[in-house]
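Hey, I was hoping to borrow your eyes for a little while. I've been staring at a protein lately and its backbone has me curious. You're getting the sequence in one-letter code plus the fold written as tokens. Would you mind checking whether the tokens look sensible for this chain? Here's the protein in full, and shout if anything looks odd to you:
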Amino acid sequence: MAKMKAISKPKAAPGAELVMVDIPKPGPRDLLVKVKATSICGTDVHIYEWDAWSQGRIKPPLVFGHEFCGEVVEVGALVTGYKPGDYISAESHIPCGYCYQCRNDQQHICGNLKILGVDTQGCFADYVVLPEVCAWKNDKSMPPEIACIQEPLGNAVYTTLCEDVAGLNVAVFGCGPAGLLTVGVAKAASAGKIIHIIKHEFRRSISKQMGSDVIIKYDDPQLKEKVLKETNNVGVDVVCEMTGNTQAINQGLDIVRKGGRFTAFGIARETSIPVNLNSLIFKGARIVGINGREMYRTWYQMAGLLNSGRLNPAPVITHKFKLEEFEKGFAAMRSSDRQSAKIVLYP
């Protein structure tokens, strides 16, 4: 059987290995895709480090990775919408298609949801099998480094545009790729003033390139006062919380205006987070939970923003490596000074 390169979590321990494995075979409703580019997600870092979440979820041996683009090289017998030669990106949520949520236009929160590269074999490889329902067809002119980050970009689109933000003041917490992309989406969607709360100085310039108007350090003792000054003492209309950090969550709840929206995307490491619920209640504010991307409303919104030229995610891509150099990518992602943002690997 033909072999391919892949990055594998071979056993229940920290780290990963470059291995040779069999090229997978597509099922009747699957596509076999030759990977052109793939990018590293924070989830992949959790798997690499083998933290408590990974230990409870991942079943080695596993080829991980879930953000990619590539060329379809083979289709299953029951596939109708794709053919060899198509250039696709992946929606990493794999829905069952028959549960209550799937039958109510909520495939992204399917009751039996599986995640590519977490619950199935992933895309840190030369080839990957993808269910037809999870494929998004790209224009051939889209650069692979952009096409492969549409999955995380979609997170930012859904977080920002679950409701309209045109003319509204938006605060974004977090300067990782998710936060930086969210700034770009808010700018492209004609938000009013975009206030970015950051931790790492390296990412300040990227934030400005993506469209932030005001940048405040997360540990600034005058954070609330500065936000109020920028919003005529009202508070922001929308908070996009992209970190899952307890301090950031409470800061966001503190600065959102009465009647505003707090959008929660960041995943907390803690199982429970103390929040000032009374503040939320008396403000009449609301929390919107974000899980991935809506299938496929978010993808159409994202395509419209990209095609318009108003959204350019390129500044968020700071490093490019060959797949074989994956250790360099993970080292950059894990560095204490975070001298990186999005990292793309090429098989």
Summary: Residues 3-149+313-346 form a domain with the Quinone Oxidoreductase; Chain A, domain 1 fold (CATH 3.90.180.10). The mean pLDDT is 96.
